[in-house]
Amino acid sequence: MKPRKIFITAFDKKRLDGLIAAAKGPDAEDREHLTELEGELKRANVVESDEIPSDVVTMNSKVLFRDIDSKEELTYTLVFPWDADVDAGAISIFAPVGTALLGYCEGSTVTWRVPSGKRRLKIVKVLYQPEAAGDFHR
Fold it and tell me: Domain ranges in the chain?
């Protein structure tokens, strides 16, 4: 199955490439996950902030999604690691689900691995996207 094309802003890609490079040192805790994120970035369609479609999940986007199996709906904001706080609804890009959401648009179904197998999420709505709101460098 051919992976779907994802979108990322040039601004976010530059910041994420730097974070990955810094985190992939010899003592990296989650090298496999960092490699997955790096792979997602390499296959992404990189666009300028003012060219990203408003229904695409970018960094700092607030997203409503549904777990396809449990039917539970959740809302999270996709953030950089230093802003992560799951209890406050802020999920890190370095978390597997964060990597799974980045770059996909409303209506997409994404799959990510968890210790018990795979989970599937449907992106119901991008509730807030910085670029659509004119916050190009948030």
Answer: 7-128
